Each structure stands twice: as structure tokens, then as C-alpha cells.
Amino acid sequence: MSGCILTSPLLGLAKNIHFNWIKKQFIHHLGDQLSDFIVGSQVNPTALTKNKQFMHTIFGDRLMLPFMSVKMAKHIFEALDYVKKTGDDFRYPIIIFHGKQDTVTEC
């Protein structure tokens, strides 16, 4: 591999998304056992698309945001921690495209 192109990468949660430490501990310890337990993602679904057809899809599918399983939340938090710990070790050139008005991910 000679490089990476990332579009709106999830390198951190948006500044307006906050999970308190109790929820994070719950997710960390029970996430794998509660794969069917659905929680709110705190993501504004209107930030995902302006297309009304896709908006109906988002609200009609329980596996899409604004909801997620506790197991998915656990894996997202683990991935964010991994990127923060090992990001400096990545030795390939990266181009990151991130919209200025993106309220779902932080870059």
C-alpha cells in the first residue's frame, strides 16, 4: 500500500455527542453480550442526508443510525481508542476529506 484516502473518517465523535462514563463502562463490559439491545446513538439523523427517500430508510431500519446495538457502540469506542493509541505509528501518506459542516464525525 502506498497511501490512504479517507472520506469523513470516524476519528472521533462529534463535539456535540457525549457519553457519560457510566454508559461507557456499561458498553465496555456488556457490549458483546447485548448485541440485540438497541440504544440511541445521539446522532441527528438529518445530519446524515438531505434526501427524503434516504431519510425514510434511516428511520425504517433498526440497524441504521440514529440507533445502534450496544455491541456496535462497544466496537466503535474500541476502534476510536485504537486509532488514538496507534495513529502516530501509521507511516503512509493520508489524504482526509472531511466536510466543514459534518456534525457526525470529528476529524
User: Cα-atom Rg, whole angstroms?
Assistant: 15 Å
Question: Which class do the helix and strand fractions yield?
Answer: alpha+beta
Estimated share of beta-strand residues:
5-15%
Largest beta sheet: what is the strand line-up? Answer: 1-4
**Straight-line distance between termini:** 23 Å
The DSSP helix count reads 3
| Oligomerization state | single chain
Low-confidence stretches: none
Number of strands: 4
Rough outline: globular
- Main sheet specs: 2 strands, parallel
Average pLDDT figure: 77
- String of helices and strands: EHEHEHE
- Proportion of residues in helical segments: 25-40%
Characterise the protein shown here.
There is one protein chain. The chain is α+β, with helices and mostly antiparallel strands and 107 residues long. It is built from 3 helices and 4 strands. The strands form 2 sheets. A two-stranded parallel ribbon has the order 1-4. Helix 1 crosses helix 3. The mean pLDDT is 77.
What are the main properties of this structure?
107 residues, alpha+beta, two-stranded parallel ribbon, two-stranded antiparallel sheet
Layout of helices and strands, plus pairs?
Elements (H helix, E strand, L loop, with lengths): L3 E4 L13 H10 L7 E3 L11 H9 L6 E3 H17 L7 E4 L10
Parallel strand pairs: 1-4
Antiparallel strand pairs: 2-3
Helix pairs in contact: 1-3
What's a quick, concise take on this entry?
This protein is of the alpha+beta class. It has helices spanning 21-30, 52-60, 70-86, and strands spanning 4-7, 38-40, 67-69, 94-97.
